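Ticket #4471: structure export looks truncated?
Reporter: QA, pipeline team
Priority: medium

Steps to reproduce: submit the single chain below to the structure queue and open the exported record.
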Amino acid sequence: MSTQLKTSLMNPLILFVFILGLQACTSNINSSKPVQDFISNMVVKHQFNEAELNQLFDGVEVKEDIIKKITSPAEAMPWYKYRKLFMTEARIDGGVKFWQENEQVLAAVEQQSGVPAEIIVAIIGVETLYGAKTGKHRIIDALFTLAFAYPPRSQFFQSELENFLLLCREEHKNPLEATGSYAGAMGMPQFMPSSFREYAVDYDKDGRKDIWHNNGDVIASVANYFVKHQWQTGQLVAVPVTAMGENYKSALAGGLKPDLRLDGLESLNLKIARKLPLDRKVKLLSFEQQPIAQKPSTELWLGFDNFYVITRYNHSPLYAMAVYQLSQSILNKKGNTHEQISTDNFNYHPKRVFY
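Actual output as written to the record:
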């Protein structure tokens, strides 16, 4: 899941050096110590055949464009630009259509898991536009490149490459054929290989966990991911909050996990337009808006435990807010097919109340 990946921006000069290095070493990277150590580990730990792995990696390509893409993720954008990528009429209408076409499965999975159908649909919409854009990179090229030619995340991607080879063996897949994102995320929900092995579900019991083509497996797998990350059924995701003055800024720093009690909002001069238990913990989040008269503008939200759970799918508050707002727009439009929904001026009017 590109959306499970927290990337680090690299200095442009370092990136340039990396690319030059790739051009110079692609031909002999397979004989390098890191690659040979990886192969040895797969042989000892998982009983892979050494000769077969060497032959497999001979058919793998190190891709310069993958390095470039991972150093400039969309989450580096300001919120007002990032939001426009996802809050579109096409994505909202696509979500309504996907929901209508998979109504029975979504209803059953929501009842079984407690994860709202609109959240599941929005995840699939943000990740791959409901399966229309699952990525064209060979998974093995992406993971190999990032495992052995991108030092800042080499450990993570070597682990994902290990999991990918294991899932190919378990699911009887040809590792040279599977395609996905530049980061190695797969299928409609864009699971990374480790997430596939841990959370993917064979919903229709046909013996395969098909997150590429089987909507039932996709829907159940996304729900299972949220359940395993402690989704709280019927609870709030996020609500807007207003500030008087700038005292609130002291509460913005540090992580995404809720760390502020609601009864502490008053001391920060924050106001929320609904009554909630005062001992409830929240995370204060600031989202950059379009500057007004060249002056910075921000929008404040309170993220609850379920907002934090969405960030476990992709460790970005921008991602989680895009999923949440898209989910509400899809829900509203599905319930009000004759009512025009504005995607430029999102209003918080959920049909389902999360308490």
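Status: closed, not a bug. The export was complete when the record was re-opened. Leaving a note from the reviewer for reference: The domain at 2-72+133-228 is CATH 1.10.8.350 (Helicase, Ruva Protein; domain 3).
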